Amino acid sequence: MKILHATPLYAPAWQYGGPVRSTHQVTMALVEQGHEVVVVTTSTGTPHEGAAGPVHDDVDGVRVVYCPARAARVGILSPEMAAEVCRLAPDTNVAHLTGVWQPSMIGVQRALRAAGVPYVTSPRGALSPYSFTRGYVKKRLYYRLFERRIERQAAAIHVTAPIEQHELEALSLAVPIDVIPNSCDANAWFEDRVAAGSWRMARGIGDAECVFMHAGRTHHKKNLEFLLRAAAGLPPAAEWRVVLLGPVADRDRQYLEHLRTLLPQNRLVVDPGSGDPGELRAAYSAADVMTIPSLHENFCNVVIESILCRTPVLSSPHVGASQLCESLGGVTIVPLDRTAWAAELMKFMRPQCRSRLVPDVREAIAKRFSREAVGSAFESLYRRVAGRTRSVAGP
To answer: S-S: 330 plus which of 235, 269, 307, 360, CB 3.0-4.6 Å?
Structure first.
């Protein structure tokens, strides 16, 4: 099949979070299965940013067209993306759109409709009730004018976990919904004790200290204040640290300064990291527990990556990947009650609990979320919708 994937942010713009990495994993899997894949994206956050026109490149075997873009009041605007899609559409069997609240996708969708190319969308949690609470008026207006039509005219909507499926069903979009999780390369994520020791030493963390880590953006949705207040209830004489690992956007720096006041300086480590997979693998291996207290995560790759590094996960009930992994092992889901979380954190500090996950758990997770398994699921979805168009579903 000839597959076109349009998204405003793509590799190597890793700083923009999990969807960039997840989308790249899917496109790589499809190329490995013999499909012709081209990604149309913007140069935002990549070495090509600032180029006057489209730049053609190859990223891990995936053809990518990076288009100029500029920031809009909502998201990223790139008329050049629509022009590229219009050029490529006649030779495309199926398209995949990833990018909600992105004006660059309006022209892309219109170009695909005009060419009669069926497409799949991936909201990636951006249409959740939580998402609508952030900038409610602006998002409701945008949804009514543009986003609802883009979703309703799709041949199918892809979600990563049942939690997101239920949220979209409430919108009554009358479009088939397919649950396909994100993939994770077990060859890239594994326990590395040597690197873990070096990582701890570089940050002044002793081998005997219990490390409660959170990996991800410093953002309100991550519920980090809850985590730090729960940790504040731990015994002061015990040896433990909370590590916040991940990038901090300028708009979130004030929030970070507030977080710093919730624990003594010697208990909290803030590390923006580099996003380098090797560094992340060392950090995950150095953690005793990965904590995910989020208010909402449609998936959360960190859950899978941590388990592959044989690090157990403590999660809120609002994390899609945690729900998928709980039955396979490695994840403890606890309601967002501060006392309950403090008690669970104390359990992980006991010597008998500070052990790595058994290999059987890692193997089960590696198989369930392998690039091959997820790529095959997408291939089946694309074959089902390729070669047919949807009737206009209305506004």
So the answer is: 307
Query: Nearest 5°: phi and psi at 35?
Result: -85, 155
- Per-residue DSSP letters for 248-300? --GGGHHHHHHHHTTS-TTTEEEE-----HHHHHHHHHH-SEEEE--S-BS--
- Per residue in 200-226, pLDDT tens? 999 999 999 999 999 998 888 999 999
**What pLDDT band is residue 250 in, cutting at 50, 70 and 90?**
confident
Residues 295-321 have a mean pLDDT of 96
Number of Cβ within a 10 Å radius of residue 173:
18
Q: Domain spans of the chain?
A: 2-183+371-385, 193-368
**135-189 pLDDT tens trace:** 888 899 999 999 999 999 999 999 999 999 999 999 999 999 999 999 998 999 9
* Inter-residue contact 5 to 36 (CB < 8 Å): no
CATH fold match for the domains 2-183+371-385 and 193-368 = yes
CA-wise closest residue to 196 among 311, 107, 292, 102: 311
Residue 53 structure tokens: 């026109």
- CATH code 3.40.50.360 for 193-368: no
Is there a contact between 129 and 140 (Cβ–Cβ < 8 Å)?
A: no
Q: For the chain, how big is the Rg over CA atoms in Å?
A: 21
How many Cα atoms are found within 13 Å in the side-chain-facing hemisphere of 7? 26
Task: Characterise 330 by phi-psi region: left (phi > 0), alpha (psi -120 to 50), beta (else).
Answer: left
Residue 90: pLDDT band (50, 70, 90) is very high
User: For the domain bounded by 2-183+371-385, which CATH number is listed?
Assistant: 3.40.50.2000
The phi, psi pair for 88, rounded to 5°, reads -90, -20
